[in-house]
Amino acid sequence: MEMIIRSAALDHDEYGVLTAGLAENADGTGRCLLFQASLLAFDDQDIANGEDRYCVMTDTGATEYGGVLRARLEGDTLSISLTPHLAAVLAMAEDVTCRFEDIDRTAVREFTDGLRAVLAIAPEGDRPSVEVV
Question: InterPro entries in the record, alphabetically (predicted)?
Fold first, then answer.
């Protein structure tokens, strides 16, 4: 699956939520893929429900916790590998290719740094690699 990305952003809100987002259109609309995690401590209920990690969302509202295997940024292309379960929940392919077009390189760098931070919020052994080549 391929997405053309014209907007990439990182947000840290007042509630301790870090969001790294990609969108099809420069104004943030269209198809999107959001990676989000709480920077606050998880409680026993979060852990019991498997919510002690990042979540991934799309513009359709599909949401799931965990499931990213790896992400690799090479030039203007971000390749993201998803587990079969996450791909099914998000109605996406297991391999997602995001091609950045007409986008500020600083925004891509900030998004990538944020993506690394978001995906690091998972139990040991469930943290995907984020590689920049």
Answer: Imm10 (IPR028962)
113 sits in which H/E element? helix 105-119
Mean pLDDT by 10 residues, the chain (133 residues): 95 92 95 93 82 92 95 96 97 97 93 94 86 89
Q: List, in order, residues 6 or more apart from 132 with CB less than 8 Å away.
A: 72, 73, 74, 112
CA 93 to chain centre: 15
Consecutive H or E run containing 103: none
Model pTM? 0.92
Pick from 78, 50, 46, 43: nearest CA to 66 = 50
The CB density around residue 61, as the number of other CB atoms within 10 Å, is 6
Answer yes or no: are the C-beta atoms of 82 and 94 closer than 8 Å.
Answer: yes
